[in-house]
């Protein structure tokens, strides 16, 4: 959540491509304010960063501290770059499945986040909090500016006796599926949490944008994230692959009448 808030000032809205503009059937905008296509298309794509094709689809915040080597993206957080971010820059993801093959930074203070949506509208996250001895990955979602709606699914912990290994030392695939009816979080293809919408349980609205970042949570939330120590490190999060499956009316019940929250 805070990661996205601190980013807003850094993103260069003007230079990014404006995609299809159409009459919205809700108010669907991506991270950059671009409107989504009126009729969402079904598509699937995957980026492995082994060639330059990703450059047409992703933008960087803190670009000097993002490198791509041997098909692995490295996001390096440092004193002047508090939140290096890989941002999917097209307004064509609708409901659907997003998957990331990722190895989060295990340094105290550095929180890695996979973020669907935009803080203040609707947001669905994975958050990796390395504070020992409880380093873990958690799922969370926000409806508008509300406080976290259901932090949960502490599905995977580092091994505190072994520098949080496991969670932090290997690449794992983290999936988030978003539909009008439910949100699902998956790790290595296995569902670890599912939230279903109900009359008293709105889901985030318009959580279509997508970014991956590591941010200096230690600066403001050290009780939660641990204190950032710059002499340790490096504070790097690695990404090997990103894929999306964008759903549309034909495959999902997009016209569902389930309430999905007002903000
Ligand atoms: C942190 O990264 C920024 C951006 O690449 C760079 O300008 C700066 O020198 C780095 N600072 C340190 C202390 O490494
Ligand atoms: C944990 O990390 C520290 C610093 O890198 C290292 O000295 C120590 O051996 C590691 N401990 C284990 C159990 O791997
Ligand atoms: C920061 O890390 C260094 C190197 O591990 C250590 O010597 C130092 O005590 C740490 N600082 C704090 C405030 O923990
Ligand atoms: C859509 O909803 C209808 C009626 O509730 C149901 O029969 C159908 O299986 C749903 N389709 C999908 C793809 O979920
Ligand atoms: C991963 C990466 O690009 N790191 C760079 C961050 O910025 C410093 C200073 O410019 C470089 O030395 C790093 O290589």
TrEMBL record:
GO molecular function: licheninase activity
A Pfam family hit: Glyco_hydro_16
Keywords associated with the record: Glycosidase, Hydrolase, Signal
Stretches of the chain forming a coiled coil according to its record: none
Enzyme class, UniProt record, top EC level: hydrolase
Domain GH16: 29-247
Keyword Transmembrane: no
UniProt keyword Iron-sulfur present: no
UniProt-listed Enzyme Commission number(s): 3.2.1.73
Gene Ontology biological-process entries: carbohydrate metabolic process
Signal peptide as annotated in the record: 1-22
Domain of life: Eukaryota
Name the UniProt record assigns to this protein: Transglycosylase
Organism: Dimargaris verticillata
Gene of this entry: CRH1_3
């Amino acid at each position: 959540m805070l990661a996205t808030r601190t980013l807003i000032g850094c993103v260069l809205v003007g230079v990014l491509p404006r995609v299809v503009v159409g009459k919205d059937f809700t108010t669907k905008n991506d991270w950059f304010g671009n409107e989504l296509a009126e009729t969402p298309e079904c598509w699937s794509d995957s980026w492995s960063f082994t060639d330059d094709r990703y450059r047409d689809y992703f933008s960087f915040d803190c670009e000097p501290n993002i490198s791509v080597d041997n098909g692995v993206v490295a996001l390096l957080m440092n004193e002047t770059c508090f939140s290096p971010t890989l941002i999917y820059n097209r307004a064509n993801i609708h409901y659907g499945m997003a998957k990331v093959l990722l190895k989060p930074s295990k340094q105290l203070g550095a929180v890695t986040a996979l973020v669907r949506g935009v803080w203040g509208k609707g947001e669905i996250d994975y958050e990796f909090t390395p504070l020992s001895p409880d380093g873990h990955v958690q799922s969370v979602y926000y409806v508008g500016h509300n406080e976290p709606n259901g932090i949960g699914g502490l599905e995977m912990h580092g091994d505190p006796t072994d520098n949080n290994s496991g969670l932090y030392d290997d690449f794992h695939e983290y999936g988030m599926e978003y539909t009008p009816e439910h949100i699902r979080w998956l790790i290595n293809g296995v569902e670890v949490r599912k939230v279903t919408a109900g009359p008293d349980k709105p889901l985030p609205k318009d959580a279509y944008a997508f970014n991956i970042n590591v941010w200096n949570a230690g600066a403001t939330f050290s009780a939660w994230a641990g204190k950032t120590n710059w002499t340790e490190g490096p504070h790097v999060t690695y990404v090997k692959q990103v894929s999306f499956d964008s759903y549309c009316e034909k495959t999902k019940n997009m016209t569902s009448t389930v309430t999905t929250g007002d903000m």
